[in-house]
Amino acid sequence: MEKQSYQRCRMSLQKGKKPIIELVDVWKIYRINEIEVPALRGLSMRIYKGEFVAVMGPSGSGKSTLMNMIGCLDVPTRGRIFLDGRDISKLEENELAQIRGKKIGFVFQKFNLMPSLTALENVMLPMTFQDIPRFQREDTAMKLLKRVGLEKRIHHKPSELSGGEQQRVAIARALANDPEVILADEPTGNLDSRMGTEIMEMLKDLNKSDGKTIVIVTHDLNLSRYAERIVHIMDGKIIED
Amino acid sequence: MLQDYLKFALSGIMHRSLRSYLTTIGIFVGIMAVVALISLGQGLQNVIDYQFKKIGSNRVLISPGGGGVEQMAMSGYTAAKLDDSDLRIVRNVRGVEYAVGIVMATGKINIKGKTKFAPVLALPTDARTTDFLKEFDYFIVEQGRYLKEDDKFSAIVAPNLGIDLFDREIEIGDKIFIEDREFSVVGIQKKTGNPFHDMKIVIPLETGEEIFNKTDYSLISARVKKGYEPADVADDIKKKLRRHRHVKENEEDFSVETAENVVGVLKNVLGVVQIVLVGIAAISLIVGGIGIMTTMYTSILERTRQIGIMKAIGARNSDILTIFLIESGLLGLAGGIIGTLLGLAISKSVELIAAEYGLEIFRAYISIELIIGALGFSFIVGCISGFLPARRASKMNPVDALRY
To answer: What is the end-to-end Cα distance of chain A in Å, rounded?
Structure first.
């Protein structure tokens, strides 16, 4: 196994690809009642453009923290994170917001759509925050919803959609600003297996046909078979890659 | 962009409609008070200005007692008296063109067996006085004629007297009894919109003095010649009357006032009333604002996760701040709309009630500036109340917010 991933890693290097995300000796230490709890302990990794990576590990292993770091939701206590060559570990929240809005698309376990907005408006929202003019937003959002097969449901609110449909809206939303990376946190966790497969096929297609970098965080071994690279994490460190 | 946030904020409000409605109640009471206050206040101001015009800027009024017209109106009684000798003094003051002494009393009026009480003014009937009086709206005869020098038991009746007190129109030639003496109606006075002047009866001075057994004047009205300043003439009258009546300065048992003084007194009263109402309005706006603040804090707490999502998909702090400020502003505006409508309804009702009581010159002041101003103000109150909650929302950490 170790040999396999080493080879895969080398293959990527051999292709001469640039890493889209690079973590260098990243530490994240939470302070809870004066006690320091390290969630990541000097973790280093590279994710290359066009990769489909699954981050696996039991709960408490630090994989959510890792996801927050990759997703620019949080900055490390120590160490550096590069996104597309840019050091983001010392950026202010507003700058981080702009970067993640543009470069990263999130797909969450609980879908996390805005309940008061329609499917179309939900997909338009990330573009609104990037100051994209309305006609363009609407056009892009329509295309994306068509792509995930929801062109007939664009004016429905999340409460009027099934779980699978909601997750498809979430994928369309993740694609809104044409990001480099799609970051999915247990994307099938709230879906039945048929829906789950549908969603995973969709992500796989995005990886293959659009060349998007996909990072999924999961503890479900079934999902990991979609990935071409699996990173196991335990106690804030990579134990297998 | 702002349009999108507006839509977004609106959908947020609609999503929690009951709480939103309840919150707006807090603000609408304040806005209602402000709108009614301005509408009525400005309406009263207009009445005062109108009265000022009617009294005429070149008038000086001399009344017995130290308190002036205001005190006379309030108590109606004073021990000091003004008589013919005082009138002569006033007429001889430089700058005074003409002056008239008026006897005022409440008379027992009897028409067709029904007895009521109404104000009776006894005025000289010579041609010069009649010309002098014609300049006042309050004494213009619309039907019939003015009093003539040889009139004795003739009366001019105000237009509302008959209907309001006796349930019947009074017409020219009708017989009425004042203090049990028979008078014939020779003229009907023009409607003025002032309840006092629309209910009064005017009779010849000598007749009035006789039936009321009064030889003193309730009021001396003087007209100032062109080119003289009414305030200066008033001072001069005061000086001459002091000498005549042997009283010291500041101990006068009479008052001399220009139209400006009289209006000034009314304006002061109006000012005090306005200050009180502004205070009430301010308190209710503060309470309403706190209501909005509470609702926004609750709303933000509930939507912590949504705030996290918005931040995850690229919302800057300023985007979140704007969204929540607009939301609280809209809550304020919603209250403002209801408040403005009710405020205008109140002042319009007051106008109708005032008209019912004969004060027909009173008009509630309603203008587009007032409405836009009130709505803008309520939006701003909403924004101010929502600022702290919105700022808290904007500063949330996305990781913590997503975990909520």
So the answer is: 8
